[in-house]
Automatic annotation (TrEMBL):
Keywords: Membrane, Transmembrane, Transmembrane helix. The keyword Iron does not apply. It is a multi-pass membrane protein. The keyword Transmembrane helix applies. It is found in: Membrane. It comes from Sclerotinia trifoliorum. It comes from the Eukaryota. This is E65e15e7-e58f-4bd6-a05a-23b24e3531a6.
Length: 421
């Protein structure tokens, strides 16, 4: 490049970044691009990952009021993910196009974005794995140094060492460093495709190990088969990240035999979005039950959840709709009562006693049915005149799961009545 005149350099930069296949004419303006597909995947994964990290931090900070190291690391992982999606696909003239349809001057912008995104991807995926493994140690070991404790630590530190080496190689892949993206710079570079291949291989192996680690402990817990499957599924949601990592690995291997870097790297970014997004969501899943349980106790949230089904029911008039809704809910309660022989009925009536739920049909009543695993809690509350009546249906073998204080304040006198469910 040093022997070229300025006009020759300019001509080179305005030419295609790769010689096109035989019979193909470069199209710099209107060539096919993967950008719409990549943007769709990017938007979905970003919304879900951001929502998951928000729920995690809100739950740990405002509800549990106890933040741990893995929570801060999860936030760092989300930050690395945001940097990754910003630095990939930011230039529509380059991303998702065949390299011969890109000018060399624009190809340099693509290479610079690839340099930054490769570093941010490594930092994000490392943070996700550390966050998940630290959660395993906190949840499953409970301060005991058993096989699970040492397995998590061994996998975590092997992952840290590997990614630190990989990040060092990525940062200093070229000498000098600007040679990575500046095609006019003199110097030399290692083959970046081998770094992609090593990253994909390590991700796939470590992802499967992270999924398998807690399974023996989960299946030894004293739970029903259905509960085992449910808990195991929660800790296996990272399987989507494993699949994305395998797809990314396959594409990385093709880069060793194909010089169309912009096309294959753009394809590789799509499963990378899924891998990072699914990893962040997986690391946040243990906090979701506590979050939704707390939200369900907020009156306006509970009222909204009860009223949502009625929005989808046809009605001729507001009165008929109300009666139909009450009849359906009452029937659901009766069916639930007949289905399980373990259930019993407990009544606490502040004014007078009623024999069955059928007597409530057509009256001003509110019903709620909540299921937690194999436990079903059904509650009915009605206010008739000056009297409040409460009926509660729960699983006697599980004991008391939740206590709710109901208060009624009458206008004109501060008289309140309470009932524990």
């Amino acid at each position: 490049m040093a022997g070229l005149s300025p006009s020759q350099v300019e001509e080179l930069l305005q030419g295609p970044a790769l010689n096109p296949p035989l019979g193909v004419i470069p199209n710099f303006d209107n060539s096919y691009t993967l950008l719409p597909v990549a943007n769709a995947v990017k938007i979905v994964t970003t919304i879900l990952a951001t929502l998951a990290i928000f729920i995690r931090i809100y739950t740990k900070w405002r509800i549990i009021r106890e933040m741990h190291l893995e929570d801060y690391i999860a936030v760092a992982a989300w930050g690395g993910y945001i940097v990754f999606i910003v630095t990939t696909g930011f230039d529509p003239k380059v991303f998702g196009r065949h390299q011969w349809n890109i000018r060399l001057v624009d190809f340099q912008i693509f290479l610079y974005g690839t340099y930054i995104s490769s570093i941010s991807f490594g930092l994000a995926i490392l943070s996700i794995k550390i966050s998940i493994l630290l959660q395993y140690i906190r949840i499953f070991t409970a301060g005991t140094r058993d096989l699970m404790f040492w397995s998590c630590h061994a996998l975590m530190w092997m992952t840290v060492v590997f990614y630190v080496i990989l990040l060092f190689m990525t940062i200093f892949l070229c000498t000098p460093v600007p040679k990575f993206w500046n095609v006019l710079e003199t110097g030399h570079c290692l083959n970046m495709n081998y770094v992609f291949l090593a990253t994909g291989t390590a991700n796939t192996i470590s992802d499967f190990l992270i999924i398998l680690l807690p399974q023996p402990i989960i299946w030894r817990l004293q739970m029903s088969f259905k509960e085992h499957v449910g808990v195991s599924a929660i800790f296996s949601t990272g399987l989507l990240a494993c699949i994305a990592s395998m797809v990314r690995l396959i594409i990385s291997s093709k880069l060793l035999k194909n010089n169309d870097v912009t096309w294959l790297t753009s394809i590789m970014c799509i499963p990378s979005y899924v891998e990072l997004g699914a990893g962040i969501i997986t690391s946040c899943l243990p906090t979701l039950p506590r979050f939704f349980k707390t939200m369900a106790q907020i009156p306006w949230v509970s009222k909204m959840c009860i009223s949502i089904p009625s929005c989808f029911k046809p009605s001729k008039s507001s009165t008929e709709s109300k009666k139909s809704s009450e009849r359906n809910i009452t029937a659901s309660w009766v069916r639930n009562h007949r289905r399980s022989s373990r259930l019993r009925v407990e009544r606490r009536v502040l004014s007078e006693s009623y024999d069955g739920l059928d007597e409530w049909e057509g009256n001003d009543a509110v019903f709620s049915i909540t299921r937690l695993g194999n436990v079903t809690i059904s509650t009915g509350i009605r206010n008739e005149g000056n009297n409040l009546e409460v009926k509660n249906l729960d699983d006697e073998e599980r004991g008391v799961l939740k206590s709710v204080q109901v208060s009624v304040v009458r206008q004109g006198s501060e008289h309140s009545e309470g009932s524990n469910l």
